[in-house]
Structure formats: structure tokens, C-alpha cells
Amino acid sequence: MLNDIENVLISKDEIESRVAEMGRRITADFRDKDPIFVGVLKGCFIFMADLMRHVDIKCTMDFMAVSSYSGTSSTGAVKITKDLSEDIEGRHVIIVEDILDSGVTLSYLKQYLMVRRPASITIATLMDKPARRKADVHADYSCFEVPDAFVVGYGLDYDEHYRNLPYIGVLRPEVYS
Ligand code: IMP
Ligand code: MG
Q1: Mutate which of 4, 64, 156 to test ligand 1's pocket (most atoms within 8 Å of Cβ)?
Q2: Alpha-carbon distances, residue 40 vs 64, 100, 167 (angstroms)
Q3: In the prediction, which pLDDT does 144 show?
Q4: Which end of the chain is more exposed for a tag (fewer CB within 10 A), N or C?
Q5: Cβ 171 vs Cβ 150: under 8 Å
Q6: Which residues, including other chains, have CB under 8 Å from residue 150's CB and lie 6 or more apart?
Q7: pTM of the entire predicted model
Q8: By the 8 A CB rule, do 76 and 105 touch?
Q9: Cβ(135)–Cβ(102) under 8 Å?
Q10: CB under 6 Å to ligand 1: residues?
Q11: In this predicted model, what pLDDT tens digit does every residue of 143-169 receive, in sequence order?
């Protein structure tokens, strides 16, 4: 295990089985709806790649990039740095996010996409940290509810590092200082 990690919060095997389960649920719920999965970069990239291999229906994928964080605390401001390339009017949109924390990012994104008149907007997140919620937004699909700790791995970063870890881990406090 990487030296900077204090403990593993969610193992590779646990992630694998919960992500597969979410894929099966989405498959059942969106059959014949031709949904568009919208990944929120960069954090979503590993989760979405794994999730999509368990989604056995006709669908498309697109990506957005937003920035709201620097280090471990939110700046509160959401900025769209990459917009969609596909039209979502009349489509069933499934936003794929790494973690729902304060909810500021997703509530902003939801409103931003709503203007384009999709048929529906659904949120699928790997992790949900409800203790820190500020905005009125909830996850329709979530693999794990996590405590109020800063986690990294499986796509999630601390200052762009640790995204490559195959598990979700908690950083040693020394790493922040
Ligand atoms: P929110 O707007 O506060 O819900 O934050 C959403 C974004 O903040 C997520 O998509 C992550 O990129 C980032 N974030 C929130 N909590 C964590 C964490 O514990 N580890 C790494 N990134 C996090
Ligand atoms: Mg993110």
C-alpha cells in the first residue's frame, strides 16, 4: 500500500461488487430509454469505465469537466471547463460523479443541464458523504455512503495525486501539511 495512505476505507473487491450491482440496476431501470451517461471529469473516469461494462442496454456517453475544488476544501464556486458535445434535449441524462459532498457541484450542474430540456436527469455517484450536504440534492444511485473524511483513489485525487489507487483510502494527515 502506498505510504501516504493511512487506511483503506473501501477495498477493490467491495468496489467491484457494488459497481456491478449499480450497473445491473441501471440496466433494469433504463431499458429501452437510450440514456446518455454524462461523466463529470476527472474524478469519474475509473468509476464510469467500470460501471459502463455492467450496463447492458443501448446508450451513449459524454463528458463534462467542472472545477470547484483546490486542495481539500471547496472554493464554493463552480466553473464549467468542458461542456457536452452531444445534444441532450429529450434524452434521459444520467450524471456519473465520483462523490457527492456539499452537493454544490451537482445542484449547479443539474440546473445548468435542465435548461436544455432533457427528458430526465438522474444522479449516479460512487460515494455519498451526506454529513457535508449544503445544497438540496440527492443521489438516485449510490454505491457507498462514506463518513466525513477526505478520501482518495479510484479516480479521486488530492491535488491531482492518488487517482490511480485501485481502492478508496484515507490520507495520512502529514500529507496535507
Ligand atoms: P461538492 O460540490 O462539495 O459536492 O463536491 C464535489 C466534488 O468535490 C467531487 O466531485 C470531488 O471531485 C470533490 N471532492 C469532494 N469530497 C472529496 C473527497 O473526499 N476526496 C476527493 N475529492 C472530493
Ligand atoms: Mg468530481
Answers
A1: 156
A2: 5, 11, 19
A3: 98
A4: C
A5: yes
A6: 72, 158, 170, 171
A7: 0.94
A8: no
A9: yes
A10: 43, 68-69, 74, 97-106, 150-152, 156
A11: 999 999 999 999 999 999 999 999 999
Q: Which atom of ligand 1 is nearest to the CA of 102?
A: 3
Give per-residue pLDDT as tens, 107-140.
Answer: 999 999 999 999 999 999 999 999 999 999 999 9
Residue 14 one-letter amino acid: E
Is the CB of residue 113 less than 8 Å from the CB of residue 93? Answer: yes
